[in-house]
Specification:
The complex is a heterotrimer of chains A (336), B (238) and C (355). Chain A is mainly alpha-helical and 336 residues long. Chain A is built from 16 helices and four strands. In chain A, strands 1-4 form a two-stranded antiparallel sheet. In chain C, helix 1 (29-47) runs parallel beside helix 12 (294-314) and helix 2 packs across helix 12. The chains are: A mainly alpha (336), B alpha/beta (238), C mainly alpha (355).
Chain lengths: 336, 238, 355
């Protein structure tokens, strides 16, 4: 492995930042930070953010941006919950199935506007964000549903753990949906790096016209991208519901910035064509550690935004500066 | 120009251009000819070497420097670099010279702008009914005239034309060649970069052959003919 | 064929002269928008004749739309450059917090001398505008010099500015000691001061766009940044100035907000960014840059405000009026996007058949 290439990779930089941050927190506050409970708490907080981030990763690689996924997620969760409550079929798999389908359908609405009408992604998804959320609150309902009051299985799912570790004081558990995050990460990795579809997604993000000339079907690919992002958002919404044991139509919306920040920190370029699953997961981990553990450093919570803001600017600044440097070195090395 | 070097693109280029002269530069794609032109225009400035204009050293580190030194550049890729296709013919003509069309308050003097545009449309015989139509509506030859007039309006002393008649039909081509010669007669030093050997022979006084970033040979058009030149160019490829 | 001159002889001024477009092309979307606005107004007047077309209601609408209108102008400028500014609201709030802090520090005591109050107001406004300038400078630097895509750069600064504001205020509200209330709630004759400021801003920006070199360069660069570079336009300086202008306009909006509600919070008006972008698109600003006019933005502000207030009145009985409004915004935005898409395609088709 070429060392210089390794250092230049954003995934590596973010890993170093993450390790450094964790080391500092661990040194300053070892008892609170270095515990199995805290580790599991951090991982649990990564689940929903991570699922959303995987979807955002795909969109960013394709050169677009999607800010509507939180609205998709909450709509999927809320409608699924209502269906479960109204029909009385209290089943977790059904919740996931419904959530996925609703997410997919709403995602495809974005796909129609972006793929067929070629409208700018930010503006379309801003529009659908309002449309979905407004429609949910006005036509479906705006009251919070507490899962434990109206369901049994669905509510019980919040206590379904992947692993439970017995400790001297109490026990620590990791929720089963963490496995779901890992599976989805594998699926996204597989699509991006092992399929023609993945090549098409990178190609569109790199240079849309070149991709078109190379024979990639842009419209179909964009339908896939936004449909799949919707599907992931739907699943993420259900997971959110299970973890928080409620379906609150006012929640989730507002999370889009943290998600985009995580993906960008992980090395995806918003101009498209670049980004990896591993980088995204590292970005999610970094944002989560900052959000949940800055307090352990004695930094008050109101500093969170500021730290994340600085990190985003550094995160987007590094690749931009690298690109500028590449441009000047290319001139000196290539044979014009 | 003396010892002009941009590592990787071209090296050790020495040549001079007199006012009223038309100098042709040819060579294969990747020979460094476009890079040389862009360096003269300040787009990607040369790393070393000096450029003198009228005996005075000129510092050209940016496109704005080049324009200040009265250098104009008609790019190879007219559609993406030369023109604003969706904008009006008039706007395109005044883009590089708006600074001279401001009134004493620093605001755009609309009457003067209108005059300037009308003058150039007539002068270069740009065929259009209405200068507020987008440039896209013009034919290739007329589009190239718009690019030319954009630079002529800046009153250049040196004009670099990269592929001046690429994608222009035969009739317009001759007219454009005539325009180039007229301009040289009025004292502008012109550099024509082209693959089109008949074009070089028809317009230029001298021709420089470039190869791998260096000047391979200087020729005057009187010394050579089309046949000899194309043989030379073919030999470069080997 | 006559020879070409490097210095053309002036054309005979009596000769038929081609008409020059104003440097900004006119377009049909303005007329369409005007019709839509009038239709909305008539519809709600018919639906709520007692409450909608009243002086009180009109004045209330004028006040509400002014701050969002100024923010929309800010976004419009960045959109014309081919970018976007997501940090407008964060900048406005940070400005309001700064100004409120100055006012509180200098005039909190009930027996503050009138001279001190005047000085405090001047300083507060200057500090606020200064903050807006700095915020814009930061954005401009990131976009023009670091070459970071504007969506990301301003997303980052939005978070950063919000972060700074949160740290400064610990998330709480800062109060303006009612020193700016005349600015937010007063009027010049029947004209509310915020509306007056909004209209003045629109006219000034409109003038800058159509009559200065910067405005011309902005339109050209937004249309084709490569060609503008090759034409000698300094893209970096145009971008920098655009984001600074956007920051200053956001600051003005922030000061009006502080005047109107006499409080500054870092999380105030979170939907404003979205609304401002929506207004620009409605108003015919091309999100990919280079096309659009301030007249369109002003009309779109009016149309959206009529729609919002009208819906509120019509759905007064329903507690979900706010939610329906959000839904209606989304529908309107997508509809207008579609309309623009189809009318543009038709224009292209017509242009190609003429040829």
């Amino acid at each position: 492995m070429n060392w210089r290439a390794l250092f230049a990779r954003q995934e590596f930089i973010i890993l170093v930042i993450l390790i450094a941050l964790c080391s500092i927190i661990a040194i300053i506050n070892p008892t609170a930070f270095l515990s199995v409970q805290n580790l599991f708490r951090i991982l649990r907080a990564c689940i929903v953010l991570g699922i959303f981030a995987l979807g955002t990763l795909i969109v960013l690689i394709s050169g677009g941006i999607d800010v509507s996924f939180p609205a998709v997620a909450i709509t999927a969760l809320y409608i699924s919950t209502r269906i479960i409550v109204d029909t009385g079929i209290d089943s977790v798999p059904l919740a996931f199935l419904l959530g996925s389908l609703i997410g997919l359908a709403l995602g495809l609405v974005n796909g129609v506007f972006i793929g067929i009408f070629r409208l700018p992604t930010l503006i379309v998804t801003l529009g659908t964000l309002n449309l979905f959320r407004g429609a949910l609150l006005f036509f479906v309902g705006s009251e919070r549903i507490r899962l434990s009051e109206v369901t049994t299985n669905f509510a019980e799912a919040s206590r379904l753990n992947l692993v439970t570790v017995q400790l001297a004081r109490g026990e620590a558990s990791l929720h089963f949906t963490f496995a779901l995050l890992l599976v989805l990460a594998l699926v996204v990795w597989f699509i991006l790096s092992r399929t023609m579809l993945g090549r098409a997604i990178y190609a569109i993000g790199g240079d849309r016209e070149a991709a078109e000339r190379a024979g990639f079907n842009i419209v179909r690919t964009q339908f896939f991208i936004y449909g799949f992002v919707g599907l992931l958002a739907g699943i993420g919404g259900i997971v959110y519901g299970i973890l928080s044991r409620e379906a609150d139509p006012f929640s989730i919306v507002g999370a889009e910035l943290d998600v985009i920040a995580a993906v960008v920190l992980g090395g995806a370029l918003i101009t498209g064509g670049r980004g990896t699953v591993i980088g995204t997961l590292l970005g999610v981990l970094l944002i989560t550690v900052i959000s949940n553990n800055l307090v352990l450093l004695g930094i008050p919570t109101e500093w969170q935004r500021l730290v994340i803001g600085i990190l985003i600017i550094i995160g987007v600044g590094i690749p931009a500066l690298q690109a500028l440097r590449r441009r000047s070195t290319r001139l000196t090395h290539s044979s014009g | 120009m003396k010892n002009l070097t941009l590592p990787g693109a071209f090296e050790d280029i020495n040549f001079s251009l007199h006012s009223g002269e038309i100098l042709g530069i040819t060579g294969l794609l990747g020979s460094g000819r476009t890079e040389l032109a862009k360096a003269l225009f300040g787009e990607t400035p040369a790393r070393s070497g000096t450029i003198e204009i009228k005996g005075q050293p000129a510092r050209i580190r940016s496109i704005q420097d080049a324009i200040r030194n009265r250098i104009g550049y008609v790019p190879e890729d007219r559609l993406t670099e030369g023109l604003f296709l969706q904008r009006s013919i008039g706007s395109n003509i005044v883009t590089s010279t708006l600074k001279s069309l401001l009134n004493s308050m620093g605001f755009i003097d609309t009457a003067q702008v209108n005059n300037r545009i009308a003058d150039w449309v007539n002068n270069l015989h740009i065929k259009t009914q209405n200068v507020s139509l987008p440039v896209r509506s013009l034919s290739g030859g007329n589009q190239q005239r718009v690019v030319l007039s954009k630079w002529l309006a800046a009153n250049p002393e040196i004009l670099i034309l990269n592929g001046p008649t690429v994608g222009v039909d035969v009739g317009s081509k001759d007219e454009l060649h005539q325009i180039i010669k007229d301009l040289a007669q009025h004292g502008i030093g012109i550099i024509v970069i082209s693959d089109d050997i008949p074009e070089l022979m028809a317009t230029c006084n001298r021709i420089m052959l470039m190869r791998r970033g260096r000047i391979d040979e200087h020729l005057t058009t009187r010394q050579t003919d089309e046949q000899a030149l194309s043989t030379k160019l073919r030999q470069l490829a080997v | 064929m006559t020879t070409v001159q490097p210095h053309p002889t002036p054309t005979d001024s009596s000769a038929p002269r081609p008409r020059l477009d104003s440097l900004i092309p006119r377009d049909s979307s303005i007329l369409r928008l005007l019709v839509i606005t009038v239709v909305i107004f008539i519809a709600f007047t018919l639906a709520r004749p007692d409450t909608f077309p009243t002086m009180n209601n009109l004045e209330a609408m004028a006040r509400q739309m002014s701050e969002i209108g100024i923010l929309a102008i800010a976004v419009a400028l960045t959109m014309l450059s081919g970018g976007i500014d997501l940090s407008i609201n964060a900048t406005a709030n940070l400005t309001a917090i700064t100004a409120a802090t100055v006012l509180t520090a200098m005039t909190a005591a009930p027996d503050t001398a009138p001279g001190t109050i005047t000085l405090a107001i001047v300083l507060a406004i200057a500090a606020g505008v200064g903050v807006g300038f700095l915020c814009g400078l930061a954005n401009g630097f990131l976009v023009a010099y670091a070459k970071i895509p504007p969506i990301l750069a301003t997303l980052g600064t939005m978070t950063l500015f919000t972060g700074i504001g949160t740290v400064l205020t610990k998330g709480a509200a800062v109060f303006g000691q009612a020193r700016l209330s005349e600015l937010g709630n007063g009027g010049i004759g029947p004209l509310p001061i915020p509306l007056f400021i909004f209209l003045v801003a629109a006219v000034i920006i409109s003038f800058i766009l159509s009559r200065t070199k910067y405005g011309f360069d902005l339109y050209m660069m937004g249309t084709n940044p490569h060609a503008s570079r090759f034409s000698g336009i300094n893209n970096r300086s145009v971008l920098l100035r655009t984001y600074i202008l956007s920051g200053i306009l956001s600051a003005v909006a922030g000061i009006i907000i502080l005047g109107r509600i006499d409080a500054a919070r870092i999380d105030f008006g979170e939907s404003y960014v979205l609304l401002a972008i929506m207004i620009c698109v409605l108003g015919g600003i091309d999100p990919s840059g280079g096309f659009g006019r301030m007249t369109g933005v002003v009309l779109a502000v009016v149309a959206l405000q009529l729609l919002s207030t009208g819906l509120n009145q019509v759905l007064f009985e329903d507690s979900g009026a706010n939610f329906f409004r959000q839904f209606a915004w989304g529908v309107t935005l997508l509809l207008v996007l579609m309309l623009n898409y189809f009318s543009q395609r038709q224009r292209l088709k017509r242009a190609s058949t003429e040829k």
